[in-house]
Amino acid sequence: MGQTEAVRPHRKKRSLWTDAWTRMRRNRSAVIGMAMFAIILLACFLSPFYLNYETNVIQPDLEAIRQLPTERHVLGTDELGRDILNRIIWGGRTSISIALAATVFSSVLGIIIGAVAAYYGNVIDSVIMRVADVFMAIPSMLLMITLVSVMQPTASNLVIAMSVSGIPGIARIVRGQMLSVMRNEYIDAVKGMGAGSLRIVVQHALPNALSPLISQIVSSVAGEIMAISGLSFIGIGIQAPAPEWGAMLAAGRNYIRDQPYLTTFPGIAIVLTVVSLTLLGDGLRDALDPRMKR
Amino acid sequence: MIRYIFKRLLQMIPILIAVSIIVFFMVGLSPGDPAKIALGMNAKEETVAAFKAEYGLDQPLGMQYLNYMGGLLRGSLGKSYTTKQYVANMIAVRLMATVIIAFGSLILTYLIAIPLGVLLAVKQNSWFDNISRVLALMMSSMPSFWLGLLLILLFSVKLGLLPSNGFDTPAHWILPLCCSCFGSWGGSSRYIRNMVLETIRQDYIRMARAKGCPERVVLFRHALRNALMPLITSIGMNIGTFFGGSVILEQLFGINGMGKMTLDALRQKDVPTIMAGVLISTVLIAVGNLLADLCYGLVDPRIRSIYSHPRKRKLKKEVAVSGAN
Amino acid sequence: MENDRDKLLDVQDLTVRFYTDDGVVHAVNGVSLSLAEGETLGLVGETGAGKTTTALAILGLVPSPPGKTESSATIFDRQDLRLLKESEYRKVRGNKISMIFQDPMTSLNPTMTVTEQIAEAIRNHRNITRQEAKVEAVKMLETVRIPADRAFEYPHQFSGGMKQRVVIAIALACNPKLLIADEPTTALDVTIQAQVLELMKELKNKLNTAIVMITHDLGIVSEICDKVAIMYAGEIVESGSLEQIYDNPRHPYTNGLFGSLPDIEKDVEFLSSIEGMMPDPADLPVGCKFHPRCKYARPVCSEQIPNNNEIEPGHFARCLIYEGKLPGQEVKKYV
């Protein structure tokens, strides 16, 4: 890449993270994504302070069934007369918590398993990878559906099902990254200086293997949100009367002819959340891996 | 080549066996008695016992598994607990719909996304490119089931143009297919754009320009072909996604497909049907992946050399040389 | 003016800037070069001095945007390259001017056989059939000593030295009048380096091709070049004939370069090196661009921009010492 030598100015050394943060702040769409997600998070997670689950979220109001947006019900009411805005906010809390929990579990376990496979190699590696192959051979949606069906569709079981289907993919990526990082000469240098194996992995190999993974993990939260709404949409996710975006869509579907707004607002909620997470993930990718930026 | 395909097919067998064990025991060990579910809660004790005997449910789970696998080896997928039909017949009716949705949307996605992606790369940073960035983000952030509802609202309810339920005629295919492709049109065309732009920065592209190649040749002969390689890998990985998406779309558009069948079976602990649904999807995806890998070989000579036999490789070379001189 | 007629390439005041998000990168700042047929010019400088960008600018291949190329003249073979339309420029590239890129590992398209890649260059400029072009290409490969039975292999089946020979074959396929070789040996083993250099010398003598040899290796320059231009921070700081530069380096930077070379005949205890680093092309020093690293520098060096002073016929140095601005200073050889 001869031409880049002239184009890329030489800069003072700064740490990877402060550098990434500076780049991130300069990236307008990443900042927008971050702000959007922060607002969504605040609105959803502070909801117990301003909403009462029994009275605001699940109590049917027979006086106001399938109403258009009014002053009292800003986004209208659903087929049982429940306030759609409240249900969206409460449902968001559920969906986002589950998605975040599933992402954290699958990432942590995936990273550990992938790192173990890469570091020990040989038998351990091939056993782990063959098991991952088996789980990846089943389409992940089908795997999730099967897992949720054989357990009960509770929030924690949803987290388990989504984590299990996420782990093999992350483990495989981490393993690949680790193997390529471990081939670098600085790892040999560290070994030469007499560092122990755990130290090599945790201090030297993993951080370098992970930076390309971080943006992927953030974006995968968006995927998990889609997945959980999808599961609820087909009726095996969050169960009634608790609200969930996908479940609200499924319920509103019967009234699509006359009251399409029943499905419009939950849909918009999903899109906004996914968009914010995607922008954030892309921003992180550009910030952590400036080569990809154009 | 044939040897390679054969080898890959052989490698699938242990994976399928593992998948079958996992799914069979997971479902088998889960709470709920399939006989009671199939016959209803009020069924008499004797009826339940007779049902269990008929389907071999009175045996221990390990034995049931061996029986099932024995049946598979003889080419029998078993009989559904709930519909009492042969699973093979149920699948025969439903397989086509799912295959059309999954592979149809795969093909349709890239048929549109590849030219679009190249166009976006050429028009890099134009207003067209910038709008597409926003549009692609929106498209790929829309869950297929919500998009499906919107499409039904517009094309079936308001305009009355397209049917929204069932899968009998090609007109029925349009909405589910569009629904399934919509998100990936956005995402994949951006991905292809970035791959082409990434390739265009390579040294051999500069070399091609320095040779005096017209920009069109640089783009198609040199850049696109090399950009296709990572793309094919991602296509292989997407097959599973389209298959999974089909479960939701079948539910939404009332399509009698494999996904809906498996989902219903799961609710009723109908083990033979669940097994067939999962195993057949797994096989189809594996075959799709194999096809993608074979395409990879068509594009990349470095991979191609894995397929061919060393002796043949030498022969090919000799033929080529004698042809040139 | 008689002299100008013989010039194959005449570049005056070439400037290349890149307009990036982080500011304007001054990659090439007023470079002038000239070359007669059959002559070889060594363009020497550290990494980041703007050598490659200069070469790309001559070929009209500076990516734009973000790059912008300007010059007061770029005459090649009595043709003003600045006036060419893209389609006309294309007829020059790979035909009359061709380029060998630095890294043979990445310069070849991995999905085409080497023969196809050479034949493509031929067919871009000559109206012959695909088959004829392939026959030509195989001959070309034999010229660079690659046996014909490997002609239909792909780049990944070749070693680094062989790949570089393929790259050379592509560059020479249309008998160019000017060959720009961008560090053609840097990525190769020493033994292979010698082979490639030998090959280039042979071709130069056989085909009378003019060569711009871009390198940071002064040894290569002395082996193959007639003229030398030393580049620093996008400028040519000293230029002249091979003898003038090697026997009598006058610019402190050139002198520093030679001082950092080991010499068998001399018995020095330490090799001297040039302190500091090449300046950031987005943030060049004011005045003489070399002054922050120059051991002769005086305050005036950060205020005045030196001219290209002619010290002896054909020997130029861009230093204030030769403008009498630094009284009592004299560049001592290799110290």
Largest sheet of chain C: 8 strands, mixed
Q: In which range does the helix fraction of chain A lie?
A: over 70%
For the largest interface, the chains and their residue counts are: A-B, 46 and 52 residues
In N-to-C order, the SSE pattern of chain C is: HEEEHEEEHEHHHHEHEHEEHHEE
How many strand segments of chain C? 13
- SS content category of chain A: mainly alpha
Query: Would you identify the CATH H-level superfamily of chain A?
Result: MetI-like
**Radius of gyration of chain C, CA atoms, in whole angstroms:** 21 Å
| Quaternary structure | heterotrimer
Low-confidence stretches of chain A: 1-12
- The percentage of residues in β strands of chain A lies in under 5%
Q: Class by helix and strand content of chain C?
A: alpha/beta
Tell me the major beta sheet of chain A: none
Summary of the model, kept short:
Chain A has 294 residues and is mainly alpha-helical. Chain A contains 13 helices and no strands. Chain B has a domain at 87-270: MetI-like (MetI-like fold), CATH 1.10.3720.10.
Write up what this structure looks like.
The complex is a heterotrimer of chains A (294), B (325) and C (335). Chain A has one domain (19-292): MetI-like (MetI-like fold). Chain A has 13 helices and no strands. Chain A has helices spanning 2-7, 16-26, 28-45, 47-50, 53-57, 84-120, 122-137, 140-150, 155-182, 185-192, 197-233, 245-252, 261-288. In chain A, α2 (16-26) crosses α13 and α8 packs across α9. The model of chain A is unreliable at 1-12 (pLDDT under 50). Chain B is flat and about 85 Å long. Chain B has helices at residues 2-29, 34-39, 45-55, 61-73, 87-122, 127-141, 144-158, 170-200, 203-210, 215-252, 258-267, 271-299, 301-307, 310-324. The two termini of chain B are 28 Å apart. Helices cover 81% and strands 0% of the residues of chain B. The longest helix of chain B is centred in the last third of the chain and has 38 residues, at 215-252. Chain B has a domain at 87-270: MetI-like (MetI-like fold, Orthogonal Bundle). Chain B has 14 helices and no strands. Chain C is α/β, with parallel strands linked by helices and 335 residues long. Chain C is 30% helix and 23% strand. In chain C, the strands form 2 sheets. Chain C has an 8-stranded mixed sheet, sandwiched between helices. The interface between B and C is medium-sized, with 28 and 41 residues.
